[in-house]
Amino acid sequence: PLTVVSEGPDGAPAAHRAVRTAQRVPSSCWGSCDRGAAGGGPDLPTGCRLLSSRSPVQHLRAVLKDISGHHLLEVWDHHGLTKCFNLTALNNHGRVYEDAQFGCLSWSPCENKLLYIAEKSKISSGEGQDGESGGRKDRSVYWEDWGEALTNKSVPVICVVDLQNDTVGVLQGVPADVSPGQALWAPDSQSVFFIGWYHEPFRLGLKFCSNRRSALFRLDLDGSCERLSGENLSVSCPRLSPDGSTLVYLQGAVFGPHSQCLSLQQLDLSSRRTSTLLDVVCRPQPGQFAGIYEALPSCCWSADSQKVIFSSARRNWKDLFLVDRRSKKVSSLSDNLSDPLQVYGSWKLLTVQRDLMVVSCSSPNTPPTLRVGFLPAAGAAVTWRTLQEPIMTFDFQWSILDVSPPPEEDNNHYSGLDFGAFLVKPSRPLGESRTPLVVFIHGGPHSQSPAEWNFTTAGLVKLGLAVLMVNYRGSTGFGQDSILSLIGQIGNQDVKDVQRAVLTALQTHACLDPKRLAVIGGSHGGFLSCHLIGQYPDFYRACAVRNPVINAATLLGTSDIVDWRYTSAGFPFSYDQIPSAEALAAMLHKSPISHAAQIKAPVLLMLGGRDRRVSPHQGLELYKALKSRGSPVRLLWFPEDGHSLSRVDTQEDCFLNTVLWLNQHL
């Protein structure tokens, strides 16, 4: 029988449970993707699969789908579909969260319960976001949300499905000033761990920001809640060991750089003692581990609960690491020595299952390929096996550049720092003596351009252009000191670093044409691109930017991360801060708009109408400044897209227009 749990005839949640006999859907229709895959059985409507999770013992599969606006939670066994909950019709909560920031779908160890995160029901709660009375009269009341890519996600709640009783409920006891997410079951199946982000006095954007005040909590099903981590910290990614004894999680500072080097903490659940497994790395030694800068995969433990495996940035690479809890020693598991003809610049851990690691490997000339390998014995190397060779490889050359700034460009507070870049170019120029160079700058600024597959880079090189990707000081993978060195130095240190990298590439690669240079980038990469064509107006021939920061002063009141706007300019942030003339003047001085009158290169602007991080009016400000001076400028407007311009049709449009723009002006 297929159990269908839905709304009762009088509209009361779970008041009626309809049970009907239906043909079972074969388990071969399950699919294997955790997020975003299409799926559905032959006797069920096909929908968008939002989340998926498999139980470890009985191998049950829970699947959350969106079908015609209804969220359905399906439970499958090895015979086929057994239960289906229409969460929308039950009306216990709003939409289920499927994002990577809050979202989860977790089986209890007893495999009789599931938990997930959803938006609190505004109707059933009867209250507004600030505790005021709810109802129809409040439909125009403003509800804060969590910013870019998390629009309409405001008040999350933890929901539990009891598969024995066919009930769905919302857990009580979460502190009122906390928004829960990233929840998982405790070993006893009677309580849950979760990360809680503090949202008072108001919410700040969470996407790409690892510096938000948050804590690790434990919530019993009876409603009692306790905080397990320290005060005034930022925490994320709780991961329970297979034996249920230890919880590891990432920890960082609040405010300051929006993304930073994090420490790995371990909590002994029996003694309640927390200790540091891996600390923040300020200045990594050459060739050594450089710190943790990104989220842990959902499965990252060894079977014996003694090792944690993860990927992280290391200079211009993305590497695979293992840390042993007993010795606290970190070792690299990537293998770029056994086959000198196939070097992967990026190793991304996808999961670990019973000591079998599954990784995605790529390089600038090789699309991602799936590789597997078992955790090795102490001192031994991993034997990696490629499950499927890339569908194609490209005849590109790529090389790493290590760049040291000259004494006059050194940072007095963080002296002696270097940075990196990598160059990708055609193996054989397309009928020309010298190759045009496109400088492709990453955003953030605290992020990284690893030597991995990038379709924009590959497309440009395939068309006969060389591409230089720069990891200026402030990029991740070079230690916390490098990140901190950029605070208060945007528009100066980062601009000079990119220009220094370009000069280094031109000096060391005679095949590059110094008279045909272009610069492209998005967000902070667009900020730097516009700075470069303004500060070096006779150096670059063309520019193409996506959602660039143009005027930090006018961005202050429109961005979802107002704290970063102060921090990047060198000013401390507090929630009650009122803009001062000094701060606004400094932001304006550090912005590309202050050099707009010197710009000569033709500029292509690509703007998302729904960008919450960098308002599209930033690009419009530069558009008007250039238009009024008769400078060549073209603007593409994508009304339904946000900061990342990530819709497939938008990416296609941006790539084609960028190629045509560069072809026209180079």
Short description:
This is Acylamino-acid-releasing enzyme. Belongs to the peptidase S9C family. Among the domains are: about 295-390, no CATH class; about 400-665, Alpha/Beta hydrolase fold, catalytic domain (Rossmann fold).
Descriptive overview:
- With 666 residues, the chain is an alpha+beta fold.
- Among the domains are: 295-392, no CATH class; 398-665, 3-Layer(aba) Sandwich (Rossmann fold), CATH 3.40.50.
- The chain has eleven helices and 34 strands.
- Strand 5 and strand 6 form a beta hairpin.
- The model is unreliable at 7-46 (pLDDT under 50).
Topology:
Blueprint: E1 2-5, E2 17-20, E3 38-39, E4 47-54, E5 61-67, E6 70-76, E7 81-86, H1 87-90, E8 105-107, E9 113-119, H2 122-125, E10 156-162, E11 167-170, E12 178-185, E13 191-198, E14 214-220, E15 225-227, E16 234-240, E17 246-252, E18 263-268, E19 273-278, E20 307-314, E21 317-324, E22 330-332, E23 346-353, E24 356-363, E25 366-374, E26 385-386, E27 396-403, E28 419-426, E29 435-441, H3 455-462, E30 466-471, H4 480-485, H5 493-508, E31 512-522, H6 524-535, E32 542-546, H7 552-555, H8 562-568, H9 581-589, E33 603-608, H10 616-628, E34 633-638, H11 648-665
Parallel strand pairs: 1-7, 29-30, 29-31, 31-32, 32-33, 33-34
Antiparallel strand pairs: 1-2, 3-4, 4-5, 5-6, 6-7, 8-9, 9-10, 10-11, 12-13, 13-14, 14-15, 16-17, 17-18, 18-19, 20-21, 21-22, 23-24, 24-25, 25-26, 27-28, 28-30
Helix pairs in contact: 5-6
EC number: 3.4.19.1
GO molecular function, one term: omega peptidase activity
Domain Peptidase S9 prolyl oligopeptidase catalytic: 459-666
